[in-house]
Write a structure and sequence with these properties.
Layout lengths: L5 E7 L2 E6 L4 E7 L4 E6 L5 E6 L4 E5 L4 E5 L6 E4 L6 E5 L6 E5 L23 H6 L6 H10 L5 H20 L7 H10 L3 H10 L3 H10 L3 H10 L5 H14 L3 H10 L3 H10 L3 H9 L2 H4 L2 H13 L3 H10 L3 H10 L3 H11 L4 H14 L3 H10 L3 H10 L3 H8 L4 H17 L3 H10 L3 H10 L3 H11 L2 H17 L3 H10 L3 H10 L3 H11 L1 H17 L3 H10 L3 H10 L3 H11 L4 H13 L1 H11 L2 H10 L3 H10 L5 H14 L3 H10 L3 H10 L3 H11 L4 H14 L3 H11 L2 H10 L3 H11 L4 H15 L4 H13 L3 H10 L6 H18 L2 H17 L3 H10 L3 H10 L3 H11 L4 H15 L2 H5 L3 H10 L3 H9 L3 H17 L3 H11 L8 H13 L9 H19 L7 H22 L6 H10 L9 H14 L3 H20 L29 H15 L43 E3 L6 E3 H14 L2 H13 L12
Antiparallel strand pairs: 1-2, 2-3, 4-5, 5-6, 6-7, 8-9, 9-10, 11-12
Helix pairs in contact: 2-3, 3-4, 4-5, 5-6, 6-7, 7-8, 9-10, 10-11, 11-13, 11-14, 13-14, 14-15, 15-16, 16-17, 17-18, 18-19, 19-20, 19-21, 20-21, 21-22, 22-23, 23-24, 25-26, 26-27, 27-28, 28-29, 29-30, 30-31, 31-32, 32-33, 33-34, 35-36, 37-38, 38-39, 39-40, 40-41, 41-42, 43-44, 44-45, 46-47, ...
């Protein structure tokens, strides 16, 4: 036998690892779902036997990697039989029998008659079958059992039976087998103990029957005989039986006995002792008296948890109302159904977590399909998607993905699409790829499948043009690599990429093809391309070809330069003369000559007649060496001119000394003097002037003097001008500097003839300021004051006018007032104060003016001064203390002041209603409402109504609506027109049929709901106005719910049904707008028949609006429906002309379709499906709160009467809310809960 050496051990409580010790490698691991408490390998190490805590036996074939489960073998003790490949000996739970599990042995097959162990201790074989028969001879049976083995007790029992039979035969005759004891023993041999009992009781041998059962340890049957015969030893038997059970450790049976006798506490204790906590729990949960014992319950629960019977423990805790512990046990035992049921009642917040954990558990158990719905209930969309994909529930995965965000869809749509692609269901795969924004993958799918037409069609329809280009460009590049240039060109041109074709020809140096495409597609780049090609060809030394491209690019200079660089001057001159301007060839000739130099250059230029021009050109372009060379060899008279140009160039370069030399050589030393003067190098300028041009000395001195004046070196400047004999300039500079004294001095000393005119100019300047100026007036005033002429002093002070110096003015006025009060009489003082007072007030000196007025008892003037200075308290105090007549005067002015200044906050404390009216006048509505809110509800809503009316007039109805949302809508009849106007404005506004308009519709709905609730509590209840507002509320609810549904893709049908349901309310909403929206919604979800009818009606209405009458309308399509015929004619078109034309074209197109049936769909009532009234019976159904359609069957009822919903629509809406978490949809549910008195408890499924 091959040598084996293997080891099996526990990695953790539920995982077994097997290792080959000879090979030194891991054979594998075995995972189990329960705790493992025993394991053993057989002798050959090929089989592994292990048992878990639930006493379940598992056999694992290590070689075949196969596991057999034997749940029927609940055995506490077991062991391999030595020497056998697969034989297990075990003892049962009650220790009453020995079990042998037999399979193929490794030793030879047993011989005939050998003892072959079998499960349950039975014996098989020919001898066994012979012994199982009913031979007539006890002697024969004795021989049979003797042959089966010396240790078998049956031969002994039969021997004793034969002896009894023989003894009876001797005493009474016959063979003795009819004797009752023999018959009893034979019945016992056949294990027919009831027959034996019957035989004994027929002989009234009760004691023998009881003794038989006692010998067989059949205590129940023994006690039953005693009870039946009312035996006096019955109680003793029972005690003996109970003691025997305890002695033999049969606690389970003892517990059953105690239970049957009513001793429940003892029974529970015995069940726990026997390791059967489940039975103890079952007994306790059935008896309230046991549940009332906390100690007993804790013992049972502890035993259940120790035995990992968590579900039973949870039931026990739940029975004792310990919900928290019950929930924990259910979780540990994976009993999620009971955990969820308990959580729904006690811990609603835990339901979502439990649903997620349930899903996780099912995933671990590979029950992915079942996990999906639990993940959905837990709002774990990602896990639900993964479970659906893992369970290959592809349609369900798509259904969940359709309501997720783009990020989630982008991750999982490709996986689903890849499945359908693998199944060659390309159309579905394409649709899913597009949903996942994986257009490229869909195109790759078609490409790999060789479906190029579908790939191109999809690319053109779904991809951006640049992505389509990438697809074709890739194919074209493959053609290019294969040398199929024409085919590649066609592909490039197809996707409007001629540039790539051009590049292809360029790389292949197929320049003719390249130029052909450029001429066709990029004429603007043709010149640049010729130039580029010319450069490339020039670099490759293909000069003639390069010349061609240069000339085609109109770049003859590049061709000339090319030939020049290659020293091909003849060619360069030829090109310049043929293609350049009038002087181009001359310039080339000049450069040619410059390259030659010397006599050769002179000869060449003389040949072309360009010598003098060349010299001028060289000098003008700062090529002085070449110019001097040509002039010296041919035209020496040009040398001075060249020297002058060279000097000017050197001056510009800042090389003054070199420039000086050139200017002197050119015979123009004055240029050198001016150069140095400009640079303020006066010494060098004077040196050159004195050496070469004495007349220029004056220029140097004057310039130096100007610089000295600018630097305020007046004496130096005057000395320089004196040397230059230009003192008139000195007078000018002094006069401009305002130095009139120096100017007069110089003029008097050196220019006496100009002195008189200068003197007159000086006097005019002084006269502008004059002695009677402000300072003069003040000086004169002070002189009058010192002389005691106070009146004249006051007049002088009052004459002072200096607007730029308010302090001086105040001082003068105060001085005038002081002198008048102190030295002049009261009439004169009052006169002065009437002048000074207003002046002081005008500069803000209100208190000073008032004090002066009070000194002269001018009370009213003082009060006016205080009021002008907003010193209202002082004004009131003066009026109250000095002249009470002016108190009312002050109060009136104070109110007017507050109104004029807009200080309404202060006015509130004086006259609140006046303040509110003032807020209204100033359109300070927020402050008005804030102040009114502090008064009372009636005052507040008076001004809310005024503000709302104002807003509606200005077209800001949305803000007016917000007012009533914020402050509530009271059931005041005078406000009804405002509410109606708000409703009319909203339903007539375009652009609110979308998801973004939800908040606006919700505000209108909430306002109308608040109004209706208030009307119910008022005298307006059940009036026509109340019914009208209830209808408006229903319309607002439909519009709000429609906007909410439009935010979720899977609720498109709900949104469409709501638009259709609104048609029955066209008496209060614009009919043309309603039919347009209903038709567009139906068209959007593919209901073309319905869309055709509604949009056709819309066109009829638009025509009627233009004609101004509804008389021509045909109502045949809407007979037997609840869509009204008599509706108000809209005052204007609610749909723009462009959209009306689109609808007109579509209706015309659809009218040509023979498949179109111009009939509204009907339901089981044989009535238009959206009509609330049945045609045949006249029964009016309630509208669905979600769709507005009639509720017929499968309805969801709400607490408030008259509020119902179709179950399918309700479940679909709830499903969308759970998966999308849409705030708008959640708000709709919140409103329905408020409107209908609560939400029903419902569930949903995918079925």
């Amino acid at each position: 036998m091959e040598e084996n050496k293997r080891l099996a051990y526990l990695m953790d409580i539920k995982t077994i690892a097997t290792v080959d010790l000879l090979g030194g490698y891991n054979i594998g691991t075995i995972s189990h779902d329960s705790k493992i408490d025993w394991l053993e390998l057989n002798e050959t190490d090929h089989k592994l036997l292990f048992r878990d805590k639930k006493m379940r036996l598992q056999l694992y074939d290590i070689e075949g990697n196969h596991q057999d489960h034997h749940p029927e073998l609940l055995l506490p003790t077991l062991q391999w039989v030595p020497g056998w490949q697969l034989m297990v000996v075990a003892q049962n739970r009650n220790n009453t029998s020995l079990c042998v599990w037999y399979n193929i042995p490794t030793r030879p097959t047993p011989r005939r008659g050998d003892h072959v162990p079998q499960r349950g201790g039975h014996v098989e074989g020919n001898w066994s079958r012979l012994g199982a028969g009913k031979p007539s001879s006890c002697t024969l049976l004795k021989g049979v059992f003797a042959a089966l083995g010396a240790h078998c007790p049956r031969p002994v029992f039969l021997h004793e039976t034969n002896e009894i039979a023989d003894q009876v035969a001797k005493e009474y005759g016959g063979d003795g087998t009819d004797y009752y004891q023999v018959r009893v023993r034979l019945a016992m041999l056949e294990k027919n103990y009831k027959l034996a009992e019957m035989i004994l009781l027929e002989q009234n041998a009760v004691e023998e029957a009881m003794e038989m059962y006692q010998e067989l340890h059949m205590w129940d049957e023994c006690i039953a005989v005693a009870e039946a015969k009312s035996h006096p030893a019955l109680e003793k038997l029972r005690r003996s039986y109970y003691e025997w059970l305890l002695q033999t450790q049969q606690e389970e049976r003892a517990a059953e006995v105690q239970e049957s006798q009513g001793d429940l506490q003892a029974a529970v204790g015995l069940y726990l002792k026997a390791g059967l906590p489940a039975k103890a729990a079952r007994l306790a949960m059935g008896r309230e008296e046991l549940l009332g014992s906390p100690d007993l319950v804790n013992r049972i629960a502890t035993a259940l948890i120790r035995g990992e019977l968590f579900e039973q423990a949870g039931e026990l805790f739940e029975k004792t109302r310990n919900s928290q512990r019950a929930l924990e046990c259910y979780r540990k035992g994976n009993s999620f159904l009971k955990a969820v049921e308990l959580a729904r009642l006690v811990f609603p917040a835990e339901v979502v977590k439990l649903e997620e954990a349930w899903g996780d558990h099912l995933v671990q158990q590979k029950q992915l399909d079942a996990a999906i719905n639990h993940y959905i209930e837990a709002r774990c969309a990602v896990k639900a998607i993964e479970a659906a994909i893992g369970a290959r529930q592809w349609k369900k995965a798509i259904y969940i993905l359709d309501i997720q965000d783009k990020k989630t869809g982008a991750k999982y749509y490709p996986k689903v699409a890849q499945h359908y692609a693998a199944m060659q269901e390309y159309e579905i795969a394409e649709e899913v790829f597009i949903k996942g924004d994986c257009i490229k993958d869909a195109i790759d799918m078609y490409t790999q499948a060789g479906r190029w037409e579908q790939a191109h069609k999809l690319a053109s329809r779904c991809m951006r043009p640049e992505d389509v280009s990438v697809l074709y460009i890739t194919q074209a590049q493959e053609m290019e690599r294969q040398g199929k240039y024409k085919e590649a060109e066609r592909l490039y041109i197809t996707v409007d990429e001629p540039d790539l074709a051009i590049t292809m020809y360029k790389k292949s140096k197929m320049y003719d093809e390249m130029i052909r495409l450029l001429a066709k597609y990029h004429k603007d780049l043709l010149s640049d391309t010729h130039l580029h090609l010319g450069k490339e060809l020039e670099a490759d030394s293909h000069l003639q070809e390069a010349e061609y491209h240069y000339l085609e690019a109109k770049e003859w200079k590049a061709a000339v330069n090319m030939y020049r660089l290659n020293n091909m001057w003849d060619e360069a001159y030829r090109v310049a003369k043929a293609h350049g301007g009038a002087n181009s060839h001359k310039h080339v000739a000049f450069l040619w000559a410059k390259s030659l130099g010397g006599e050769a250059a002179v000869k060449l230029l003389n040949k072309f007649g360009l010598l003098e021009m060349a010299i001028d050109h060289a000098a003008d372009n700062n090529m002085f060496d070449f110019a001097f060379e040509l002039a010296r060899l041919s035209l020496k008279q040009k040398l001075p001119e060249i020297h002058f140009k060279c000097g000017s160039f050197l001056e510009d370069e800042g090389k003054f000394e070199e420039a000086e030399v050139e200017f002197v050589k050119a015979g123009k030393p004055k240029e050198a003097v001016l150069m140095y003067a400009h640079a303020q190098n006066w010494a060098a300028a004077q040196q050159v002037a004195e050496a070469h041009d004495p007349e220029s000395v004056v220029i140097v001195l004057v310039g130096q003097a100007d610089a000295a004046f600018k630097q305020k070196e007046f004496q130096k400047a005057e000395a320089l001008l004196l040397r230059a004999q230009r003192l008139d300039l000195a007078v000018k500079h002094y006069r401009e500097a305002g130095m009139w004294t120096d100017a007069l001095r110089v003029c008097k000393e050196y220019l006496p003839g100009d002195l008189e005119a200068l003197q007159e100019a000086y006097e005019r300047e002084v006269a502008k300021k004059g002695p009677r100026g402000i300072e003069g007036i003040l000086e004169q005033a002070r002189e009058w004051e010192q002389a005691g002429e106070y009146s004249r002093a006051v007049d002088c002070y009052l004459k002072v006018r200096d607007p730029g110096n308010s302090a001086r003015m105040e001082k003068c006025w105060m001085k005038a007032a002081e002198l008048s009060i102190k030295f002049l009489g009261q009439p004169r003082s009052i006169e002065v104060m009437r002048t000074v007072g207003p002046q002081l007030v005008s500069i803000g000196k209100f208190n000073v003016a008032a004090e002066l007025y009070l000194n002269l008892d001018m009370i009213k003037e003082a009060i006016d001064a205080f009021m002008d200075g907003e010193e209202w308290n002082k004004a009131k105090r003066v009026a109250k203390e000095l002249d009470p007549r002016y108190e009312e005067y002050v109060d009136e002015h104070y109110k007017e002041y507050l109104k004029d200044q807009g200080k309404v906050d202060s006015l509130v404390g004086v006259d609140v209603m006046a303040a509110l009216d003032m807020y209204v006048e100033r359109e300070q509505w927020e402050k008005c409402l804030e102040t009114a809110a502090k008064q009372n509800y009636k005052v507040l809503h008076k001004y809310v109504a005024l503000y709302a009316t104002h807003l509606i007039r200005e077209g800001r109805w949305d803000k007016a609506l917000n007012l009533y949302v914020q402050h509530g809508a009271p059931a005041n009849s005078q406000n009804f027109n405002i509410y109606k106007r708000l409703f009319v404005e909203m339903v007539n506004v375009t652009g609110l049929n979308n998801a973004e308009a939800y908040r606006t519709w919700a505000d209108l709905r909430d306002m109308l709901f608040n109004l209706c609730e208030n009307m119910v509590k008022s005298s307006e209840a059940n009036t026509p106005a109340h019914e009208e507002f209830e209808s408006m509320l229903l319309v607002a609810h439909y519009c709000a719910t429609r906007s909410a549904a439009q935010s979720i893709k899977q609720l498109d049908t709900v949104a469409a049904k709501l638009s259709i349901s609104l048609l029955r309310h066209t008496e209060i909403i614009p009919a043309d707008k309603a039919f347009y929206e209903a038709g567009i919604a139906a068209k959007g979800i593919g209901w073309e028949n319905v869309a055709f009818i509604f949009l056709n009606r819309f066109l009829d209405l638009t025509d009627a609006i233009e004609e101004g009458s509804l008389d021509a309308l045909d109502h045949s399509d809407f007979q037997n429906t609840d869509i009204p015929y008599e509706v108000p004619l809209p005052a204007k078109q609610h749909v723009p002309e462009e959209q009306r034309e689109e609808i007109r074209d579509w209706v015309l197109t659809m009218s040509m379709d023979q498949r179109l049936e111009q009939v509204l769909p009907r339901d089981e009532r044989d009535t238009y499906e959206a009509s609330l009234v049945a045609v045949s019976t006249g029964v009016r159904s309630l509208p669905c709160l979600i769709t507005g359609y009639p509720v017929l069957r499968n309805k969801v009822e709400f607490k408030r009467p008259g509020k119902q919903a179709n179950k399918d629509s309700w479940n679909k809406f709830l499903m969308a809310v759970k998966m999308s978490h849409s705030p708008a949809c959640q708000d709709v549910l919140k409103f329905i809960n408020q409107w209908c008195g609560g939400l029903p408890t419902t569930s949903f499924s995918f079925q």
